[in-house]
Specification:
By secondary structure, the protein is an all-alpha fold. It is 62% helix and 0% strand.
Length: 156
């Protein structure tokens, strides 16, 4: 029983979605294909590279990348070909250009807005603590009467 569990634990590693029939016979081309696939986003899955995605579109993209490499394209040409077909969305690191400004600037703007909001909240909450009033003499007398112990009352 322990041996079975040990074997199952060893087999429970993350599996790549690349299927055996996709792997190129040339190890250099296959390494390039894996590197390119790791930088391309699956258009169906959310934030998953095509190298690990089981989606049919991801498989098609993996095959397309390998096909382009076999035809002699450079890595840059493969990226350009895929972007021409699917747009900048397929890149995990989109280029800095007018159509991708929102992708690059939105996180920065949200962080600035969040810090501004937190500073306003802290500023207003600290003012609330600074404006507390002291007790009037009548209120202090009532408080001391309420907080007297039984022994204090007995001695009076």
């Amino acid at each position: 029983m322990i041996r079975i569990l040990l074997v199952l634990m060893l087999c429970a590693t993350t599996a790549n979605a690349v299927e055996p029939d996709e792997i190129l016979s040339d190890p250099t081309l296959e390494a390039r294909a894996r590197a390119i696939s790791a930088d391309l986003r699956c258009v169906v899955c959310q934030n998953e590279p095509i190298d690990t995605s089981n989606a049919g579109v991801a498989r098609d993209l993996r095959l397309l990348v390998r096909e382009r490499l076999v035809e002699g394209d450079t890595d840059k040409q493969v990226f350009e070909y895929v972007v021409a077909r699917y747009g900048d969305y397929v890149l995990f690191k989109p280029p800095w250009k007018s159509t991708t400004y929102a992708l690059w600037l939105t996180p920065i703007l949200l962080a600035i807005l969040g810090m501004f909001s937190v500073s306003l909240i802290l500023k207003h909450s600290s003012k609330g603590f600074a404006t507390t009033k002291s007790l009037s003499p009548e209120e202090e007398a009532q408080l001391s009467e309420i907080t007297k112990t039984k022994e204090d009352r007995d001695t009076e």
